[in-house]
Structure formats: C-alpha cells, structure tokens
C-alpha cells in the first residue's frame, strides 16, 4: 500500500485522557474532541516532514476511513496534521 501525493495513511490510537483535576475521560469522551491521535502507517509520495511510525494529531473533520485487507485505516492530508510528536 502506498499513499499518493499529500495523503497520509494512519491508524487511530485509542487513548484515555486524565484532566488536571484527576477526571479520567473515556475513549468515547475523547472522540468528541476535534483532534485525534494516530500513528502514521504510510506517508504519501509528496509528504516531506512526516515519516512512517510518527505519532500525530490531526483534524478529524477532514478525514475518511477505509478498510484495506480487513484493517481499518484513516486517510488524511498533510495539511490536516496539527502536531507531530
């Protein structure tokens, strides 16, 4: 599988978030946030800064999901990545 152009194939990371007050947010609560955390599987041929296995936060409103070989992937564009960890 090879992403083309500025597209990036990612696998979403399910996380539980603890607030400063100690409140534990479930994955369902964190799904309501605008940005999601993911691991890069395959950056597109024109993506320069983001590499495979990078962990990123992206704007989930501009993503779509595909099932390839029975594995669910999310497809985003480089411009929708807001943070590379």
Query: How do the strands of the widest beta sheet line up side by side?
Result: 6-7-1-4-5-8
CATH architecture: Roll
Structural class from helices and strands?
Answer: mainly beta
Low-confidence stretches: none
Mean pLDDT level: 88
CATH homolog superfamily: GroES chaperonin
Key features?
two-stranded antiparallel sheet, 10 Kd Chaperonin, Protein Cpn10, Chain O, mainly beta, globular, 5% helix
Task: Summarize the SSE layout with pairings.
Layout: E1 7-12, E2 17-18, E3 24-25, H1 27-30, E4 35-43, E5 55-59, E6 64-68, E7 71-77, E8 81-84
Short description:
By secondary structure, the protein is mainly β.
Describe the structure.
With 85 residues, the protein is mostly beta strands. It has one domain (7-84): GroES chaperonin (10 Kd Chaperonin, Protein Cpn10, Chain O), CATH 2.30.33. The protein is built from one helix and eight strands, in the order E-E-E-H-E-E-E-E-E. The strands form two sheets. The chain has a six-stranded antiparallel beta sheet with strand order 6-7-1-4-5-8, with no helix packed on it. Strands 2-3 form a two-stranded antiparallel ribbon. It is globular, with a radius of gyration of 13 Å. The two termini are 24 Å apart. The mean pLDDT is 88.
């Amino acid at each position: 599988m090879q992403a083309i152009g500025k597209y990036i194939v990612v696998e979403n990371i399910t996380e539980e978030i603890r607030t400063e007050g100690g409140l534990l947010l479930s994955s369902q609560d964190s799904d309501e946030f605008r940005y999601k955390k993911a691991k890069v599987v395959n950056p597109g041929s024109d993506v320069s800064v983001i590499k495979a296995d990078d962990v990123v936060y992206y704007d989930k409103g501009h993503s779509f999901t595909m099932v390839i070989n029975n594995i669910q992937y999310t497809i985003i564009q480089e411009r929708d990545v807001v943070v590379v960890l």
